[in-house]
């Protein structure tokens, strides 16, 4: 295959976004986000897209967040490629995958590799996890030069993380939450944030107390998934308690949990008044959802019913031909960062997500997991029919 150069595939990504917007604008005409900002003003010329929205600007410490759409950390997914695509499709802030503080402290190659961030992913939050305040502080100090913001994970519900006393397990120990935040804030000059859940279980919802501690210890923002740790990713999200947190503290509050459409994002932001909304699992294989949400924010009045102000359903799905080009380019980015062997194997799951819902895709899906080379992947993408 051809030798890949980052600037070259970045230019192809700009064109991909432009082509997406051409399809989108056929159905929805952006108003506040001008065509010039969207790179569509000069014919074939492709401009760098500016996703700044004056109505939703806020800061995390000294880091300006241009709009309220934030790409969530996703283990095994939110790598360099994912973060670059997130930024070009509207995200104002990206997250690394969750990185073990012990791995950084003991210089484990896999952990350190996760801390690499390119200029195309910024501003980027480097997220660490652990249970030892001193180790957490030292790990944060060692990687702060790579990060724009250091985030402490205090919400992960994965059993392996909980057994180590990390992630969501920390919500059971408010004193340790306080020690960790204090130590990390003191150790670094970059802004510090925390990603949490609303409590351990429904009988122990302590997010308001946790939020007060986090703010009181000097953190600059809090990201809240509106479920308990024990809920995992099932059951209802409690946006009401997140609203109470927003009313209680003064640092930025970013809400997450089941935000999977433009109308859902608009409804949640309006309901709880949070500074931003974090999009996670819903963007797997459909990172363009971030841009759909951002465009809806800039044109939200056009999406309201004239009679009662209720949001209409915004259901834009890009064409199969566009998604085929998206898949080809995503693979090239993966190969650039990880090499062909590792990239092609990781790409298998992305193909499933990218073409989810395409008519007749089930007969092709069995071939996705046989991909071993770039040529294998391209041949399979080319074979997907455009109906």
Written overview of the protein:
By secondary structure, the chain is an alpha/beta fold. The chain has 2 domains: 29-303, TIM Barrel, CATH 3.20.20.70; 319-383, Non-ribosomal Peptide Synthetase Peptidyl Carrier Protein, Chain A. It is 42% helix and 11% strand. Helix 1 packs antiparallel against helix 12 and helix 8 (207-216) runs parallel beside helix 9 (239-248). It starts with 5 loop residues before the first helix and ends with a helix.
Summarize the structure.
By secondary structure, the protein is α/β, with parallel strands linked by helices. The protein has 2 domains: 29-303, Aldolase class I (TIM Barrel), CATH 3.20.20; 319-383, Non-ribosomal Peptide Synthetase Peptidyl Carrier Protein, Chain A, CATH 1.10.1200. It has helices at 6-25, 80-88, 101-105, 109-113, 133-143, 159-163, 174-187, 207-216, 239-248, 262-272, 289-298, 320-338, 340-354, 362-368, 374-383; strands at 58-60, 63-65, 69-71, 94-95, 99-100, 124-129, 149-154, 192-197, 221-225, 253-256, 276-279.
């Amino acid at each position: 295959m051809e030798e890949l150069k980052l600037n070259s595939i970045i230019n192809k990504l700009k064109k991909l976004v432009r082509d997406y917007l051409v399809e989108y604008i056929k159905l929805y005409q952006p108003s506040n986000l001008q065509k010039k900002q969207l790179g569509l003003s000069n014919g074939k010329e492709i401009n760098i897209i500016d996703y700044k929205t004056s109505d939703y600007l806020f800061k995390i410490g000294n880091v300006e967040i241009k709009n309220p759409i934030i790409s969530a950390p996703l283990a095994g997914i939110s790598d360099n490629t994912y973060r670059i695509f997130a930024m070009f499709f509207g995200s104002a802030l990206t997250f690394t995958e969750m990185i073990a503080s012990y791995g950084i402290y003991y210089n484990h190659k896999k952990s350190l590799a996760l801390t690499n961030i390119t200029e195309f992913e910024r501003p980027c939050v480097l997220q660490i996890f652990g249970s030892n305040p001193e180790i957490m502080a030292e790990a944060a100090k060692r990687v702060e030069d790579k990060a724009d913001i250091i985030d402490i994970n205090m919400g992960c519900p994965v059993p392996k993380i909980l057994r180590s006393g990390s992630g969501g397990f920390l919500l059971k120990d408010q004193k340790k939450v306080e020690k960790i935040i204090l130590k990390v804030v003191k150790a670094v000059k970059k802004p510090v944030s925390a990603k949490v859940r609303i409590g351990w279980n429904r009988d122990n919802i302590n997010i308001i107390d946790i939020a007060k501690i986090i703010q009181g210890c000097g953190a600059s923002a809090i990201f809240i998934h509106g479920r308990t740790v024990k809920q995992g990713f099932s059951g209802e999200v409690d946006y009401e308690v997140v609203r109470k947190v927003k009313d209680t503290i003064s640092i930025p509050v970013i809400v997450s949990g089941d935000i999977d459409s433009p109308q859902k994002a608009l409804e949640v932001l309006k309901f709880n008044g949070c500074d931003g909304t974090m999009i996670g699992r819903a963007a797997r294989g459909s990172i363009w959802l971030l841009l759909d949400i951002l465009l809806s924010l800039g044109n939200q009045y056009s999406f309201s019913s004239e009679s009662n102000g209720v949001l209409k359903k915004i259901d834009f799905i890009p064409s199969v031909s566009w998604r085929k080009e998206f898949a080809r380019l995503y693979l090239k980015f993966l190969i650039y960062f990880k090499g062909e062997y590792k990239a092609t194997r990781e790409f298998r799951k992305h193909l499933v997500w990218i073409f989810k819902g395409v008519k007749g895709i089930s007969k092709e899906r069995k071939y996705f997991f046989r991909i071993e080379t770039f040529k294998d992947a391209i041949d399979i993408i080319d074979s997907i029919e455009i109906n």
